[in-house]
Amino acid sequence: MKRQVISLLAALAFITTACSSPEGEGTAEKSEKTGPLLISSVLNDAKARASLKSARSQLVAPGTEAIVWDDECFALSLPPNDDSSTSAVALPFELNFFGTTYSNFFINNNGNVTFDAPMRTWTPFQLTANTPPIIAAFLADVDTRTSGGGNPVSGLTTYSENPISYEGHRAFCISWVDVGYFSQHTDKLNTFQLLLVERADTGPGDFDIVLNYSRILWETGDASQGHGGFGGTPAGAGFSAGNGDPAAFFQFPGSLVTQGLLDSNPETGLVHNSRNSPLLGRYVFNVRNGHPDVTPPVSTAFALPPPDASGEYHGPVSVTITATDDESGVASITYALSGATAGGATVTGSAASLPPITNLGVTTITYYARDVAGNVEAPRTLVINITPEPVDCVTVRLHDYNLFLLGDYTGGHDVVGKVAAGGNISMHGFAVGSGLAETDIDNVLVAGGNLDISHGGVFGNAFYGGSTTADGTVTFARGQLAQGSPIDFTARGTELGNLSTFLAGQAATGTTTREVWGGIFSHGTHAGLNVFDVNASDFNGAVLWSIDAPAGSFVVVNIRGASASFGGFGIHFTGGIDQHGVLYNFVDATSITANGFGFWGTVLAPSANITFNNGSWDGGIYAHSLTGDAEGHINPLNEHEICTELN
After folding, report:
1. Does residue 179 contact residue 186 with C-beta atoms inside 8 Å?
2. Under DSSP, is residue 49 helix (H, G, I), strand (E, B) or coil?
3. pLDDT at 35
């Protein structure tokens, strides 16, 4: 009987108030009043509460279950109205909202509650530090009147008479279920809810703001320049302490943006997101010590090793993402990789170590952190552009001369390729260039100093820089003798010295062993470059030198020691390597002696004076000087490029 009497009185009060309202039915314009319009609430009986819940299956948007359907949420309701509010409603517990303790508040039909006074403002506004103290579930021009004529009926603004239990805590519930918009439009209906949850278990006055959304189809009333529920000044959502503190308010992304909060917006639509809850459409703000944590964490990504001066990375890159949050703490870090490398994960905690990035090309890392309160920072990006290691490449070109000396050549007998010496040349009973092609006649014999030759033949052009003894006993087949200096021996000497030093710096890639019985075995398996380190002293007493490397590879033998002697043994190739792919680099030798020996391959010894008799070389010799009657045979070294990474 009591509830029936209250309901009847409330209905009579509403009829009286509605009749005195200056707003005409169906009017698309209205003006602000100096004070809010207060109306009495209706106390709903069990049947009425059930009726308010009856359309639940139709109200819930696909995939959303955020609305709390406790009967107590529909205990009291504002009668059908536009822009009205309750008088002060006593809260069942005190709230510390940004340092001010409240024990009552006002429920406003236009989707919000205020603490200092009721508010009938219908056009949405920015929630800033200077607005009245407010919590707005959906700040817009809600109109719960019905125009009649068979149109759908708008739902009502309802709220608790007694606290409900929400996750084990007392809560006050305010619901706007299936509500229309001004002016008396019900072609589109919205359903949303506000819970104020007591959390005195964490501290006096502590509470949670829980905002639930099930279906948001309209955003603007006609008096806010809307048309069909859209456009004009669209709805907003959030809260503000109204104390002027720029850190004491929060506004949802998409607020006051056309269709920003609607179900049709998959990015910022309220039913498509959540906060501090696994349910889409539910947003939980923990207000502790008067302060809701609305500040997102801050994350930073570090890449090691760091990029070079041009911003590029080389080789595997390790990335670590760390995040900090001074309030509720970091809950997780999410990252996604796209481009040259794809992948991603969400990692619990404040640090995430990504798998090493190894693919060449641009990989973009998009990452963000979420805190315990549900704040999510705006995504950040780190671009990793991995390029091949910068390299220093040297081309080995030692195939132009059969014998090239920076100093003198004395005692020469038979060299079938080209000969050049920066000093003097002395050859008698000789032949130079007999193995060259008939058209290859340039610089076949060149002496930077004096050319002392007799009883021999030169198969191409010959030059001397000083004087010559050439007489009728010397023939110049396919060429002629002239005075001149066609070669810059100084420059070439610098080039050879640099090349020798460069090769000496290459790390050994193969192995060399010397057996006690005198066998030397160099073994390499690389298809490209095989580098061996050998001590010159190892050749003393040697009886065999075997070099094993794949066909087509390039073998560099770095021979270390001031002097070296060769004799009494031979060189044997296995694995497919031949003279065209072997270079003997005498790193620091100044003296080389060879007797009864054959070098298979090319010798690079720019600082060495060589004495070489009763033997031969199959390739080339590039040295300081040579004395002896050893023969030179053409098996030129193939051109090779050696590249090393720059640190």
Report:
1. no
2. helix
3. 44
